[in-house]
Amino acid sequence: MSSDDGFLAPPPGLVPAAKPNEPAVEPVAATDFISLPPGVSLPALDSETLRVDNSRRVRAEREEPETPTFVPMVAPGLPAAVFAPVDEETSFVEVTRAAPEWRIGLPGGGQVLLERTALIGRAPAVNSLWPDAQLVAVIDPVKSVSKTHAALEVAADGSLWVHDLNSTNGVSVSHNHGEEFAVIPDERVSIGDGTVVYLGEFELTVLGAAGKA
Which candidate, 200, 84, 71, 62, places its Cα nearest to that of 141? Predict the structure, then answer.
């Protein structure tokens, strides 16, 4: 239904009646708001950000890692090991075992001390394998010995080995006057005190420390 001024009037009962003795709400005057100073404005409120309680936001202190401690394990029933402190004046030295001293006996009773790996022949010459080798020249009347016939290698551990350097008449060995067998070129054979080495028809005897003159 419509009123006299042309507006639609709500049906009876839809408009709440005013409660008796209820004070009327007075409109707020514009002068009741606090005005901001010139040039100062309030920031816009982000409707998606929620303010949360930060009373539990505590910065954790950084804990320094503890220095690891190593404790020696002790078997049950055994006393704990006690380590004596190292004296500052104590020095550690490396102990090396002296290498055996090798000599070779020549026909007629002469001897040659092997100071290092030796190349033996009528006129031996160094090669690329042993550029600093000791050169031992022998006198062979029948000329069965090649110019650079064999090598007597003194290894780092002091052991002694013989090599046939592709000689004409070969190299053979006999351990303690036992069976004689040939040395194959490009292979080495271990020899020791009392071993007899044949360079063709020329005979050498290996002497250890016991054979020192």
Answer: 200
